[in-house]
Write the C-alpha coordinates for this entry.
Amino acid sequence: MTRPLPQPDPATSPYWNAARQHRLLLPKCTHCTRVHFYPKAICPYCSADTFDWSEASGRGTIYSFTIVKRAPSPAFEAQLPYVVAIVALDEGPCLMSNIISCDPDAVHVGDPVKVGFLDITDEDTLPVFELLKTSK
Protein backbone atom coordinates (compact mmCIF):
# COMPACT_ATOMS: atom_id res chain seq x y z
CA MET A 1 0.00 0.00 0.00
CA THR A 2 1.28 3.48 -0.84
CA ARG A 3 0.82 6.53 1.32
CA PRO A 4 -1.77 9.14 0.34
CA LEU A 5 -0.35 11.86 -1.88
CA PRO A 6 -1.34 15.50 -2.33
CA GLN A 7 -4.17 16.22 -4.76
CA PRO A 8 -3.40 19.75 -5.95
CA ASP A 9 -6.25 21.96 -7.11
CA PRO A 10 -6.12 25.47 -8.61
CA ALA A 11 -5.77 27.06 -5.16
CA THR A 12 -2.98 24.76 -3.96
CA SER A 13 -1.01 24.02 -7.16
CA PRO A 14 1.50 26.88 -6.66
CA TYR A 15 2.26 25.54 -3.16
CA TRP A 16 2.85 21.98 -4.37
CA ASN A 17 4.81 23.10 -7.46
CA ALA A 18 7.13 25.12 -5.22
CA ALA A 19 7.54 22.18 -2.83
CA ARG A 20 8.67 20.07 -5.77
CA GLN A 21 11.41 22.71 -6.28
CA HIS A 22 12.26 22.53 -2.53
CA ARG A 23 10.78 25.96 -1.84
CA LEU A 24 8.15 26.83 0.76
CA LEU A 25 5.64 29.35 -0.57
CA LEU A 26 2.77 30.85 1.37
CA PRO A 27 -0.22 32.75 0.03
CA LYS A 28 -0.12 36.48 0.83
CA CYS A 29 -3.28 38.53 0.44
CA THR A 30 -2.81 41.48 -1.90
CA HIS A 31 -5.48 43.44 0.00
CA CYS A 32 -4.55 43.11 3.71
CA THR A 33 -0.99 41.78 3.01
CA ARG A 34 -1.29 39.02 5.61
CA VAL A 35 0.26 35.63 4.99
CA HIS A 36 -1.88 32.59 5.70
CA PHE A 37 -1.89 28.83 5.43
CA TYR A 38 -3.45 26.65 4.07
CA PRO A 39 -3.90 27.92 0.49
CA LYS A 40 -7.56 28.74 -0.13
CA ALA A 41 -9.69 30.80 -2.47
CA ILE A 42 -10.40 33.69 -0.06
CA CYS A 43 -8.31 35.39 2.61
CA PRO A 44 -9.30 34.20 6.10
CA TYR A 45 -8.62 37.71 7.47
CA CYS A 46 -10.35 40.09 5.04
CA SER A 47 -12.19 37.82 2.54
CA ALA A 48 -10.32 39.22 -0.47
CA ASP A 49 -9.77 36.79 -3.32
CA THR A 50 -6.42 37.92 -4.77
CA PHE A 51 -3.04 36.60 -3.65
CA ASP A 52 0.64 36.69 -4.34
CA TRP A 53 2.90 33.87 -3.30
CA SER A 54 5.59 34.74 -0.78
CA GLU A 55 8.70 32.64 -0.17
CA ALA A 56 8.84 31.66 3.49
CA SER A 57 12.04 31.49 5.52
CA GLY A 58 11.26 27.87 6.37
CA ARG A 59 11.98 28.51 10.03
CA GLY A 60 9.59 28.15 12.92
CA THR A 61 8.96 26.53 16.27
CA ILE A 62 7.09 23.46 17.36
CA TYR A 63 3.72 24.57 18.72
CA SER A 64 2.41 21.06 19.45
CA PHE A 65 3.24 17.50 18.47
CA THR A 66 2.47 13.84 18.92
CA ILE A 67 4.53 10.71 18.41
CA VAL A 68 2.67 8.21 16.26
CA LYS A 69 3.39 4.67 17.42
CA ARG A 70 0.51 2.86 15.73
CA ALA A 71 0.12 3.35 11.99
CA PRO A 72 -3.24 4.74 10.86
CA SER A 73 -2.96 2.49 7.81
CA PRO A 74 -0.47 -0.06 6.44
CA ALA A 75 1.01 2.68 4.24
CA PHE A 76 2.64 4.29 7.30
CA GLU A 77 3.91 1.21 9.15
CA ALA A 78 7.47 1.47 7.79
CA GLN A 79 7.84 4.99 9.22
CA LEU A 80 6.91 4.12 12.83
CA PRO A 81 7.47 5.79 15.19
CA TYR A 82 7.16 9.25 13.65
CA VAL A 83 6.40 12.78 14.81
CA VAL A 84 3.43 14.81 13.58
CA ALA A 85 3.73 18.44 14.63
CA ILE A 86 2.04 21.80 14.34
CA VAL A 87 4.82 24.19 13.32
CA ALA A 88 4.37 27.91 13.95
CA LEU A 89 6.26 29.52 11.08
CA ASP A 90 8.24 32.71 11.66
CA GLU A 91 5.89 34.37 9.13
CA GLY A 92 2.88 33.69 11.38
CA PRO A 93 0.86 30.79 9.99
CA CYS A 94 0.94 27.30 11.46
CA LEU A 95 1.11 24.14 9.43
CA MET A 96 1.02 20.44 10.19
CA SER A 97 3.97 18.34 9.09
CA ASN A 98 6.44 15.72 10.22
CA ILE A 99 9.59 16.28 12.25
CA ILE A 100 12.27 14.06 10.71
CA SER A 101 15.90 13.04 11.17
CA CYS A 102 15.79 12.85 14.96
CA ASP A 103 14.83 10.61 17.83
CA PRO A 104 11.10 11.26 18.38
CA ASP A 105 11.78 11.56 22.12
CA ALA A 106 14.12 14.52 21.40
CA VAL A 107 11.22 16.69 20.17
CA HIS A 108 9.77 19.33 22.52
CA VAL A 109 7.26 22.15 22.28
CA GLY A 110 9.13 25.36 21.54
CA ASP A 111 12.02 23.69 19.69
CA PRO A 112 13.22 25.66 16.66
CA VAL A 113 12.90 23.89 13.31
CA LYS A 114 13.71 24.46 9.67
CA VAL A 115 11.95 23.16 6.59
CA GLY A 116 13.27 20.29 4.52
CA PHE A 117 11.67 18.42 1.67
CA LEU A 118 10.84 14.75 1.23
CA ASP A 119 10.61 13.65 -2.40
CA ILE A 120 7.98 10.89 -2.44
CA THR A 121 7.76 10.56 -6.24
CA ASP A 122 9.00 12.63 -9.18
CA GLU A 123 5.79 14.66 -8.91
CA ASP A 124 5.15 14.65 -5.15
CA THR A 125 7.30 16.41 -2.56
CA LEU A 126 6.26 17.03 1.03
CA PRO A 127 7.55 19.84 3.24
CA VAL A 128 8.90 18.33 6.47
CA PHE A 129 10.86 19.85 9.33
CA GLU A 130 14.10 19.14 11.16
CA LEU A 131 15.20 20.29 14.59
CA LEU A 132 17.71 23.14 14.56
CA LYS A 133 19.14 22.03 17.88
CA THR A 134 18.79 19.14 20.25
CA SER A 135 16.63 19.77 23.28
CA LYS A 136 18.08 19.97 26.75
Summary: The chain is about 5% helix and 35% strand. The chain has one domain: 13-131. The mean pLDDT is 94. The beta strands are 25-29, 51-55, 59-68, 82-89, 94-100, 112-119, 125-131.
